[in-house]
Design a protein that fits this description.
Layout lengths: L3 E7 L5 H13 L2 E9 L11 E3 L5 E7 L1 H20 L10 H21 L5 E5 L5 H8 L6 E4 L17 H7 L4 E4 L2 H14 L3 E4 L2 E4 L2 E7 L6 H8 L2 H13 L3 E5 L9 H14 L7 E6 L7 H22 L7 E4 L5 H10 L2 E4 L8 H8 L8 E5 L12 E3 L4 H13 L2 H17 L2 H13 L26
Parallel strand pairs: 1-2, 1-5, 2-4, 5-6, 6-7, 7-10, 11-12, 11-14, 12-13, 14-15, 15-16
Antiparallel strand pairs: 3-4, 8-9, 9-10
């Protein structure tokens, strides 16, 4: 049976996404190829070191990057260039020749690791736009393995992909895949419309096309969370302690906001919504607070200081106009909380406001719901342009550009009777159970394994098999 090689940016990040990868590989086994979080000084006569570690449930293959690859390739080309384009803001994109060169070099590092450890019938699953070029590099090395790629980000609408200078080389690499997965139907439609307009394609079915002699299958596989991990977080001592602290020190009507610090977060609209809420419903003065989690690590380093300053200015103006000595309508928390502590904050909040202007996965929305007390749950207010909006039946959907609509949704959420909150939470949890991270992996890998392109049933699991070659494990 085919083995699984999961390829991602960094397995050492303490994030919901890293926890999801861990849960998937712990259940099915495989090899996780990733940056090790360390840096090394490259020399012409020295190969990049690879570290293979055999684990009880899955194995890892890691390697270091150079500072230039990390700063110019990752934070430069990816965050300053690709990120704005994929989030419908090509006017903010900044590309340089050096950042592109470093981006290609860091992708060569992943490709080298994959080609040295992949076996002929392994399936290779690459995660997100950080690693698009490594797909073609693997093909150029001679590997014929089935390769799947999943977009964690939204796919650009219209011709925006072509705002990337010399975009053809990225598209050529992407088209070396066998399966391309998307978070939403709209993202897949954007991709198919663009690819049909720019390349000679033959549509075999609605989601399969022939291009450059390769059959590419596309699909919508919304990423879910690991509910078992959410339960562990909610039962931790740190979670319980933080929830208790919030309940004792914050107003009863705590409205939680968070996410990445970037131009797509929609922070000014949320803060304006709080002002609308207080002007429209003066009785909230003193007993409602917007708790904005804004740890610098949640954003992009090149913009973090500027965005943090802008956020603090907005909060300061808001608190100066409406606050008192005993109460602030907006509290901006820059502290880096552990995942257990974050879970406590989520659990203690009456309303979760996740209103990005555009986003890919919106995992915060799903974690907020999963961490609520079913007996007395909070209410989710969600942007209709969030990647999770298609699956979150039970959320209050809003236009993230409309502070009045956000304010109305917060007011509605705070006034909902217990029975209605429980019904909404139950519907949301039903979706989270149905489309969890294991469904996501089984659906995507099932399509990848099925070379005929049928809508295969989720794979039952990839068993670990061992071979005699020293130092090598068969997944």
């Amino acid at each position: 049976m085919s083995g699984l090689i999961l390829v991602s940016h960094n397995l050492h990040q303490h994030s919901t996404l890293a926890a999801i990868y861990t849960a998937i590989l712990s259940r099915r086994g495989g090899l996780w190829v990733s940056w090790d979080g360390e840096f090394h000084i490259a020399t012409p006569d020295q190969r990049r070191p690879l570290t293979f570690q055999q684990g009880d449930k899955f194995d890892t293959l890691t390697f270091p990057l150079t500072r230039a690859e990390y700063e110019e390739g990752y934070h430069g080309y990816v965050h300053q260039g690709l990120w704005p384009v994929f989030h419908q803001r090509p006017d903010l994109a900044r590309f340089t020749h050096d950042s592109r060169r470093q981006y290609q070099q860091l992708n060569h590092a992943w490709a080298t690791a994959i080609t040295e450890y992949a076996m002929p019938d392994d399936v290779i699953w690459v995660q997100d736009y950080h690693l698009i070029p490594c797909i073609k590099a693997v093909r150029d090395a001679g590997l014929l393995n089935r390769i799947g790629f999943f977009f964690h980000q939204p796919f650009p609408v219209g011709m925006h992909f072509e705002a990337i200078p010399e975009w053809q080389w990225l598209a050529e690499s992407l088209l070396c895949c066998d399966v391309i997965g998307f978070q939403t139907q709209q993202d897949m439609n954007n991709f198919l419309s663009w690819i049909d307009s720019e390349f000679r394609t033959e549509r075999l079915t609605a989601n399969r096309l022939m291009i450059h002699g390769r059959i590419i299958s596309t699909g919508v596989f919304p990423l879910g969370i690991d509910l078992d991990e959410a339960i562990c977080l909610s039962e931790s001592n740190s979670c319980e302690f933080m929830a208790q602290q919030c309940q004792e020190r914050l107003p009863v009507n705590t409205v939680l906001s968070g996410g990445h610090l970037d131009e797509s977060a929609g922070l000014p609209y949320r803060i304006s919504a709080m002002e609308v809420l207080l002007r429209s419903h003066p009785h909230y003065a003193g007993n409602v607070t917007l708790l904005q989690l804004a740890a610098p690590a949640a954003g992009h380093p090149h913009r973090a200081s500027t965005l943090t300053h802008q956020l603090e200015s907005l909060c300061g103006e808001m608190n100066g106009v409406h606050g008192t000595l005993e109460w602030y309508p907006v509290s901006c928390l820059n502290h880096q909380y552990s995942r257990e502590e974050q879970a406590g904050i989520y659990r203690a909040s009456r309303v979760g406001v996740v209103t990005p202007l555009v986003s890919g996965m919106s995992l915060m929305a799903k974690m907020y719901v999963a961490l609520q007390d079913p007996a007395d749950p909070g209410v989710l207010v969600l942007s209709r342009f969030a990647g999770a909006a298609e699956q979150m039946d039970g959320a209050i959907l809003v236009n993230p550009y409309d502070p009045d609509a956000i304010a109305d949704a917060i007011h509605t959420a705070l006034q909902l009777p217990l029975r209605e909150r429980q019904k909404r939470h139950a519907r949301l949890m039903k979706g989270l159970h149905r489309f969890d991270c294991h469904w996501w992996a089984e659906s995507m890998i099932g399509r990848l394994i099925d070379a005929d392109g049928h809508d295969a049933q989720p794979a039952s699991g990839l068993q670990r098999l061992y071979v005699a070659a020293p130092g090598r494990v068969r997944y």
